[in-house]
Amino acid sequence: RHISSLSDDELVAQFGAMEMNLGFVPSSAGVWSKKNRRRVTVDTAKTVRIEQGTANESSLEDGEKSMYLDCASRSKPFQCSVDALQRFYTRENAYVANVGVCSNTLAKELAFELDQARSCIRSLINGDSESEIVLTGGATEAINILAMSWGSSFLQAGDEIIVSTMEHHSNIIPWQMIAARTGAKLRFLNISPKGDIQVKNLAKAINFRTKLLAVTHVSHVLGSVNDIKSLVDYAKCVNVKVLVDACQSLPYMKVDVKQLGCDFLVGSGNKLFAAGGVGFLYVKQSVLKSIPAFLTGGESMFSDVSLDKSAIECGRLEAAFPPAAQVLALASSIEKLKSSLVFESGRAAGPMRNSPQVDKHSALLGQVLLEQLSDVRRITIYSPGPDSRPRVPICAFNVDGTDAEVVQAMLREKGIYISAGTHQAIPLHRELGIGSSLRVSFAHYNTVDDVARFTDTLKLALDKLPEKMW
Fold first, then answer.
1. The pTM is what?
2. What's the order of all strands across the beta sheet hosting 38-42?
């Protein structure tokens, strides 16, 4: 029988049988009952409970709501995004509407909706044209497509690629691979004492052999904001292309590719409160038209196909039917996000020459978070300290003498979920001289009270620890 057809009592019995047969049940195990929309879960204390709630939150035994504070890894999807997915997969004949292949009315309707979604993404970053937006399966795929298309065509032996040490692995490994194939070399920018990438460091690394600068807008570990505009301006003095990883900036900041001046930019749906498995690559129009196709075979890729050879057009980086449901869900989340963020009017204040505009509430959360964490004894904070520099509410820290995963587990018992490990940033951790760290990240919908609950719970957890565990 399908699990959705089981009653709540039967579900409890099934989970009990799982526990007896396997010896354990994952703490996140759970399922929704369609009949009364209640969730049956098995917790680490080996008790089964049925609770009312939503897919985004659960109740603890003391009545408190659990808090997911790891949106830098994966944001919770907005309800409008979930609804968009459901509408796509439940509407009549959704599966037969194949864009670019079928000429029926359903396909044309879906093509129009995807065009609208592409326009929504373009509007988010203020691009010039919808053709500059390449729909992908995520930011990682977007960077790989760029590396294999642009990189394979324009990099050669002796060329150099500059990457910062604070990058996510997704913005390091593809460039390592393409460098190995083409004979290009990688050079790395270290972080400054303030936790960002500064122009003076770029000036020491860049030269006439440099072809690409790949840098993150906001560190997914430290929460520090790089002055992308200044970095791009300097790179353009020597005709260097610039790729910006905007995965962590888009949920908090106003991102304008025209103002930044970058050639490439990537974003991820699972950081924008949408479904997973979707993202985008922005390529400036003047650059896009010179990039040969990497993925081939789709309807929109060619002008003619013969058995001898096919005429494949440049600037075509989407080869097949896009992840339509996820794209429509992403567009829905973007519209919701744009209506939720509030920015100061005019030029943003700050010590940077081109200070970015950060959502007012998110900036407040970041400031309060650092101030309150600074009052917690026995912790080392790796994120930049409180000052007038723009920031987002992402912070990395460690508890002195205690493994990060131990602290993570203690907070999890209190219903607070944060990240522990290297967060796909091993080079950054090595530069900081640590093996792992704890990372907490708040979203724009969190409150100052949420920050206080997190820091208070952390203090209580640390009071139970001996001064040094190992």
1. 0.83
2. 30-33, 38-42, 48-51
